[in-house]
């Protein structure tokens, strides 16, 4: 069943003049000013995505009007770097940290030049941005992507040199608090050959009503590994429509980890184009929903080159009237010989009103594959397992907690960074406690 998102606001969405004014305030370079203008000009003629499009099969946002939402640029902060660093809990040994509040940069510290806000990029970095921004996620796909590029702010380039390796993650935190704002942060990640980088993109917002249109483009170099984690800890009145796409090179690896505990509506597209021979994609997701939250994942693992592999595991624990949706496609093209792919979506329904939809799809155009498998489940906590634990002297509530954590732990245990794993676990604990 398709779930509708309605919005009674009918004002016209911010247009070309507002887009140009924003770009002028942010000091756009020539390439970004041109991209912003093209997107703003295209937006009025592009449709809001409809349920007739496969990625939007389970969510109808055709009633959503962007009219009352405007981009907001904060004034920064006078707290000082130490106070900002402490507030966001940035580790001292992080190779780079950046914090944005209402799209204004309030902290940027790094051991070497790894994170660059679009407006601060030098000539060489501007050339890199002009080459890659918009290549994985086109500006004219639909009205949402056009509005993203027309009003992007608080956007960064993560530029990782060849042979770089650091087990500590680069941290980017984005917080939004102004009501009725349109937030459109862009993260583009470009890594050199043989590099290994961990990046954490942390999104938070107040309980004010707002719309967020984040986009992430990932371009790993040959034999490079990118571990990208997005923490969706949005406020309860935020509607989020996020696009994320990776395009791989030879023998490169992309690990995508997603935590979804916040937002009124979170629609997250995670796609990977496996264009490099021997490249791979792993997608891990954890969702805890309560109230009337709607967490909706669309994934595409597109095996284009030979000898590629992908693995996907998303798990949801749902309280109240919350809903989790997964619609995922594993595609193996004619040239994708010897592909190895797996996708799983598992749901734990912790109330009678919670709902989960799982729709895994395989599209295989060659008969030369190692394996292509998929699976999906949805149901309550197993009564036999509960009974077993209760016979060992554990009361029902604690027994259920143990089983929920065992269920989520299968994903959590696969997060390579120990500190990040504990941070994600703590966010899950807080949300499960709120739901109890």
Can you characterise this structure?
The protein has a domain at 3-276. The strands form three sheets. Strands 5, 6, 8, 9, 11, 12, 14, 16, 18, 20 and 22 form an eleven-stranded mixed β-sheet that branches. A ten-stranded mixed β-sheet has the order 4-3-7-10-13-15-17-19-21-23. A two-stranded parallel ribbon has the order 1-2. The chain is built from eight helices and 23 strands. By secondary structure, the protein is of the alpha/beta class. It is globular. Helix 1 (16-26) runs antiparallel to helix 2, helix 2 runs antiparallel to helix 5 and helix 6 (383-391) packs across helix 7 (396-412). Helices cover 22% and strands 39% of the residues.
Key traits:
23 strands; 39% strand; eleven-stranded mixed β-sheet; single chain; 436 residues; ten-stranded mixed β-sheet; globular
Short summary:
By secondary structure, the protein is an alpha/beta fold.
Set down the secondary structure blueprint.
Layout: E1 3-6, H1 16-26, H2 30-42, E2 59-63, H3 81-88, E3 96-101, E4 104-110, E5 115-117, H4 123-132, H5 143-150, E6 156-160, E7 170-176, E8 182-183, E9 186-191, E10 196-205, E11 210-212, E12 215-219, E13 225-233, E14 238-247, E15 253-260, E16 265-274, E17 280-289, E18 294-303, E19 309-318, E20 323-332, E21 339-349, E22 355-364, E23 369-379, H6 383-391, H7 396-412, H8 418-435
Parallel strand pairs: 1-2, 3-7, 6-9, 7-10, 8-11, 9-12, 10-13, 11-14, 12-14, 13-15, 14-16, 15-17, 16-18, 17-19, 18-20, 19-21, 20-22, 21-23
Antiparallel strand pairs: 3-4, 5-6
Helix pairs in contact: 1-2, 2-5, 6-7
């Amino acid at each position: 069943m398709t779930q509708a998102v309605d919005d009674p606001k009918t004002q016209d969405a911010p247009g070309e003049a507002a887009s140009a004014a924003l770009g002028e305030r942010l000091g756009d370079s020539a390439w970004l000013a041109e991209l912003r203008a093209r997107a703003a000009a295209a937006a009025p003629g592009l449709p809001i995505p409809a349920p007739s499009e496969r990625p939007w099969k389970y969510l109808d946002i055709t009633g959503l009007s962007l009219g009352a939402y405007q981009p907001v640029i904060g004034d920064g902060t006078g707290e000082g770097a130490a106070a900002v660093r402490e507030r966001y809990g940035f580790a001292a040994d992080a190779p780079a940290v950046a914090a944005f509040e209402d799209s204004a940069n309030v902290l940027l510290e790094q051991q070497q030049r790894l994170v660059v806000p679009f407006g601060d990029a030098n000539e060489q970095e501007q050339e890199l941005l002009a080459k890659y921004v918009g290549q994985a996620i086109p500006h004219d796909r639909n009205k949402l992507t056009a509005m993203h590029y027309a009003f992007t702010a608080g956007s960064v380039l993560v530029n990782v040199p060849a042979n770089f390796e650091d087990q500590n993650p680069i941290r980017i935190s984005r917080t939004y608090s102004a009501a009725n704002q349109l937030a459109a942060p862009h993260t583009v990640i470009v890594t050199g050959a043989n590099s290994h980088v961990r990046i954490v993109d942390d999104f938070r917002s107040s309980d004010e009503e707002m719309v967020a249109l984040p986009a992430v483009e990932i371009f790993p170099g040959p034999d490079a590994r990118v571990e990208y984690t997005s923490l969706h800890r949005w406020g309860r009145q935020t509607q989020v429509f996020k696009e994320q796409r990776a395009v791989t090179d030879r023998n490169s690896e992309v690990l995508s980890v997603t935590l979804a505990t916040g937002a009124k509506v979170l629609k997250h597209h995670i796609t990977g184009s496996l264009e490099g021979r021997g490249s791979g994609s792993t997608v891990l997701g954890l969702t805890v929903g309560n109230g009337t939250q709607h967490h909706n994942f669309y994934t595409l693992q597109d095996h284009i080159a030979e000898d590629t592999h992908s693995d996907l595991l998303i798990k949801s624990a749902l309280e109240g009237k919350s809903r989790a949706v997964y619609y995922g496609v594993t595609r193996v093209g004619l040239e994708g010989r010897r592909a190895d792919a797996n996708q799983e979506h598992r749901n734990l329904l912790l109330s009678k009103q919670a709902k989960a939809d799982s729709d895994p799809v395989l599209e295989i155009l060659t008969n030369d594959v190692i394996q292509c498998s998929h699976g999906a489940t949805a149901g309550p906590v197993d009564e036999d397992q509960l009974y077993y634990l209760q016979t060992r002297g554990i009361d029902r509530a604690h027994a259920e907690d143990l089983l929920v954590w065992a269920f989520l732990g299968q994903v959590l245990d696969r997060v390579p960074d120990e500190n990040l794993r504990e941070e994600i676990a703590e966010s899950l604990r807080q949300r499960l406690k709120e739901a109890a």
